[in-house]
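for the writeup, i need someone to sanity check this before i put it in the appendix. the sequnce is what the collaborator sent (i think, or maybe the updated version? ugh). structure was predicted straight from it, no edits. if anything looks off just tell me and ill rerun, i have time this weekend
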Amino acid sequence: MYTSFREMPVWQKAMELSIQVFKLSSSLPRSEDYGLTSQLRRAANSVSANIAEGFGRNTSKDKSNFYIIACPVK
């Protein structure tokens, strides 16, 4: 069992995703800074944030709800 969400491979991959999205979105036009760029970055960051939030929950139903929200592909 994991003692921290940082030990979870899925959280580590979510952080890698976030870094890659940040790098890719930095090449978007400057006019998109407050539009598409911002939305892409916030969406990528929310994956790891929801995994971390779910890890801290006590009930399995509550945990699974956050893990489902974190899933980037629906």
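The chain has a mean pLDDT of 93. The radius of gyration is 14 Å.
thx in advance!!
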